[in-house]
């Protein structure tokens, strides 16, 4: 699969899993993985899953607006940047977000090495 | 310098150079560098500089809202995600943007391997 197809497949899987049961996202991270979620920086599968599951909302929906990918290394790494909308619980207004994933190949799959997430606040 | 300091220094230099004379940004790219600017994908210093200099505005100002960095490899690569505002020519309303840089060390400096830029359109 080319890097664009991989990026799209990964991102759809990630947000579907996040929105249905984010406690299961641990399979996508490793002990060296890093997550920046707003101003919080974490490393390692356990810390990352704890952070994601502790986020204070019950229902969440990610809607992708743009998805762009590039090869990030000769060994098959892929960089993905997503912008989109986040709908939380019963709120009517979506929040804009930006997120980047750096994916590293492992066997027939990929894991997340870098993950940076930011809401886009209005100036 | 730690990766946070490097990311901040690089980003300030990049946007200052972009906003004052973007024809000089070529020094920051190499032939293997990639730029995704909105829906356009380019590779190589020459193509990237041609794209940046052909953008249809005279005056431009980048204002950083958030800047987040992570180490991206054992060899010193750094990943930076920026969200911010773009002020173009005489327009009164800023446009929101998101950008990611993957920086690779080279001697005492860094060059841009991956560069993805997107305006954040309202849904």
UniProtKB/TrEMBL annotation, chains A, B:
InterPro entries per the UniProt record, alphabetical: NTF2 (IPR045875), NTF2-like_dom_sf (IPR032710), NTF2_dom (IPR002075), Nuclear_transport_factor_2_euk (IPR018222)
Domain spans labelled NTF2: 6-119
Principal subcellular localisation of the protein: cytoplasm
Highest taxon in the source lineage: Eukaryota
Keyword set, alphabetical order: Cytoplasm, Nucleus, Protein transport, Transport
MF GO annotations: small GTPase binding
Cellular component, GO, one term: nuclear envelope
GO biological process: mRNA transport; protein import into nucleus
Compartmental location: Cytoplasm; Nucleus
Residues spanning the signal sequence: none
Pfam families: NTF2
Function: Has a role in nuclear-cytoplasmic transport of proteins and mRNAs.
PANTHER family per the UniProt record, alphabetical: NUCLEAR TRANSPORT FACTOR 2
Name of the protein: Nuclear transport factor 2
């Amino acid at each position: 699969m080319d890097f664009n197809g991989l990026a799209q497949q990964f991102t759809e899987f990630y947000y579907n899993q996040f929105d249905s049961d984010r406690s299961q996202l641990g399979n996508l991270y490793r002990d060296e993985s890093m997550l920046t979620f707003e101003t919080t920086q974490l490393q390692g599968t356990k810390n990352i899953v704890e952070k994601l599951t502790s986020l204070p909302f019950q229902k969440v929906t990610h809607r992708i607006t743009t998805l762009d990918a590039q090869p990030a290394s000769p060994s098959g790494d892929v960089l993905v940047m997503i912008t989109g909308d986040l709908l939380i619980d019963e709120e009517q207004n979506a929040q804009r977000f930006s997120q980047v994933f750096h994916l590293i190949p492992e066997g027939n799959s990929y894991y997340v090495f870098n993950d940076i997430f930011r809401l886009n606040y209005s100036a």
